Amino acid sequence: MNYNNEDFTKGLALAGKLNIDQTLSDLSDAINALKQLPEVSGKVGSIGFCLGGLISYRLACRGKVDAAVSYYAAVSIK
C-alpha cells in the first residue's frame, strides 16, 4: 500500500476528530466485559501502533490493562 500527502492529511484530520476520552472509556468497558468471559484468564493486554500506541499507553497508565505494547506512539491528540 502506498501513502501520499493526501492520504496523510486525511488521516490526520480523522485523528483530530477522535474523542480520546470517549475512546478510552469505550475500551475500558470492552476490557471489563472481556474479563468477565470464562475463556479469559482475567488478564487483558493491549498493543497499538501510532495512534493505537498512544491509546495502548494511556490504557496502561490508567491501570486498565495488565500489559501494553506501544509502537511508534503518537505524542498527543486533542
Query: Any idea what the shape is?
Result: elongated
Portion in strands: 5-15%
| Low-confidence runs of at least 5 consecutive residues | none
- What structural category do the secondary elements indicate? alpha+beta
What is the alpha-carbon Rg in Å? 14 Å
Sequence of strands across the biggest β-sheet: 1-2
Please give the alpha-carbon distance between the first and last residues.
Answer: 28 Å
- DSSP helix fraction: 40-55%
Assembly of the depicted chains: single chain
- Number of beta strands: 2
| Order of SSEs | HHEHE
- Largest beta sheet, briefly? 2 strands, parallel
Query: Could you tell me the mean pLDDT?
Result: 89
Mind explaining what this structure looks like?
- With 78 residues, the chain is α+β, with helices and mostly antiparallel strands.
- It has a domain at 19-71.
- It contains 3 helices and 2 strands.
- It has helices at residues 5-16, 20-36, 51-61; strands spanning 45-49, 67-71.
- It has a two-stranded parallel sheet with strand order 1-2.
- The longest helix has 17 residues, at 20-36.
- The model has no long low-confidence stretch (mean pLDDT 89).
Short description:
With 78 residues, the protein is an alpha+beta fold. It has a domain at 19-71. 51% of the residues lie in helices and 13% in strands.
Give the secondary structure arrangement, pairings included.
Blueprint (H helix, E strand, L loop, with lengths): L4 H12 L3 H17 L8 E5 L1 H11 L5 E5 L7
Parallel strand pairs: 1-2
